[in-house]
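Hi R.,

Here are the chain sequences for the assembly we discussed:
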Amino acid sequence: MRRLESLGHFIWDFIVGDDWRIAAGVVLALGLTAIVAGTSWSAWWILPLVVALLLAGSVWRAAPRRRTPSARP
Amino acid sequence: MSGPEVGLAISVFLACAVEAVEALTIVLAVGVTRSWRSAMTGVGAAVILLAAVTAALGPALTSIPINTLRLIVGALLLVFGLQWLRKAILRAGGAKSQRDELQEFEHEREEALQAGAIDSGLDAYSFTIAFKGVFLEGLEVIFIVLTFGANQHNVGLAAAAAGAAVLAIVLTGVAVHRPLARVPENAMKFAVGVMLTSFGMFWGAEGAGAHWPGGDAALLVLIPATLLIAVGLVAILRRRAAHPAVPQPAKAAISA
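And here is the predicted structure of the full complex:
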């Protein structure tokens, strides 16, 4: 059981990594692309847009918060 | 060689070189500190296991229909590429410490020294650490080689690029006999992140049924655009680090 658990952890770390939102966002974006591609609309722009947002959001969350210096002496 | 093939060769070479540098640091640390024979036995065992994984996965991947393959590979490359790029951006922007091979080497060496007496036969510690290091880093190499290669119907080119990278790093490591601290590892990771993300978007969208304007030429826009966004994020992080936030009363005084 513990071996299965550590295998699961390994696969999760290997594929998903530090930010699960990236993996979830990629899957959703691909799904949306497939849906839109099935209509008469063009769908190529969805992935670049979502990827840019995912990357910016992930970097923003991981970057250390900017500390506001205290106004009080 | 076509544009996508050049991209494939560069991406695979850089990615494999980065992974090889990391594996080399681990093997050198246990080899120098404890037992070269055991460390090299670990490396050999990992290489055999990696070859078995490649033999099992390679034909399976190439037998998948091309659009399904592109969708799966695109998704995986995107997830991998975005993780690499995210880390590289944070490091370049000063929000995360840069990877330092000398520091990693010292850390591994300290742990190897504290791991107890060295076995006279096969040293289990050296074997395990070398095996784990080479297998885990090698798994990423295999993943990149197989996905890129299968998608472009050119596993041979991807394997050649990977082999050249590993050979170059190992020969340099043997020659200098110390960790390759001068390899611009972080810059290489940045470049690999950009390439994996761009190819991931390209193949992922195609696999999902979208058509890129200009076909393969779209990569010539996707790669610089991804690079531009990544460089922009680095610039924002650096600016944030250089200019701490202005306190509220000071802001009010400025606007008054």
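Chain B touches chain A at residues 71, 74-76, 78-80, 82-83, 85-87, 89-90, 93, 95-96, 139, 197, 201, 204-205, 207-213, 218, 222, 225-226, 229-230, 233, 237, 240, 244-250 (CB under 8 Å). Chain B has nine helices and no strands.

Let me know if anything looks off.

Best,
T.
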